[in-house]
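Re: your question from the hallway

Yes, I did run it. Sequences:
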Amino acid sequence: MSNIKNIAVLTSGGDAPGMNAAIRAVVRAGIYHGINMFGIKRGYDGLVNGDITAMDVKSVANIIQRGGTILKTARSTEFKTVEGRKQAYENIKKLNIDALVVIGGDGTFTGASKFIEEFNIPIIGIPGTIDNDLAGTDFTIGYDTAINTVVDAVDKIRDTAESHDRLFVIEVMGRDSGLIALRSGISTGAEAVLIPELEVDYEAIMKRLDSTRKNKSSRIIIVAEGDEEGGLVVAEKIQKNFPSYDVRVSILGHIQRGGKPSCMDRVLASRLGVAAVEGLLEGRKGEMAGLVCSKITFTPFHKAIKHIDAPDENLTRIVEILSL
Ligand code: F6P
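Structure:
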């Protein structure tokens, strides 16, 4: 039997489609289990400033299909300080909040770990980031929607590339991770994908562009924003090597973060929201709820935020094999 009576939920870091579905699941799962539920505004900033309100079944109605986060989000600097976290602890004690669910990425879980270490508050995390760069879950909430947004945009750019016989360098999000770039690259038939985890082999790229010249009139090169050089520099180098190519650059930017969550993201968020609350009631803390091979798992924060060094080798090989 758990002593937890009051749980608060927050979203932190970059917004991701499906965060609302996760908030809804956490709030409703809590109410289902007889818990009083609270929402914290603007991530850890709201915890520090006491921007915390009670939530009921109706406060999460009609949000499962909405992008962004109704709780708003932030990358808090105050919570990184000892004084900030002390203030946050005082605020949750004032409201008798016994436990937290935090939805976000590596920064969110790093903050949560620190808070547990100092104040021993039970916290469970839910992976919410378009980057899919956390260990302990096959997919993070928002990733599926984001890659589908990228695919849609690249397909449109391909129409122009094909009509004008152009080469487009398209920069996608992914500060430390090339997973958005890799999957969207495979599914749009990109000629090359450049990611932060692997050093760029310009010689190989130029060779491939040259040897496949006769087979194609349009070319797409996907570059993850965290790649060592970025889209503009890559485009410049290609243009220098192939002066006859008509090269253009497109940086997709924040369009990738917004929009209606896909069905996959809504289901993932709903499952992880329920799992997070039930995990807390079972006495778990300092762990992230995730889905591995379709099964709910719990991974300690320090393992979840461990950066995945190398992406699946098969994915990089597939790009090469299929770009003939
Ligand atoms: O972590 C998600 C992400 O979208 C990254 O891919 C990107 O580098 C970063 O957030 C951008 O953050 P901001 O919206 O604060 O510029």
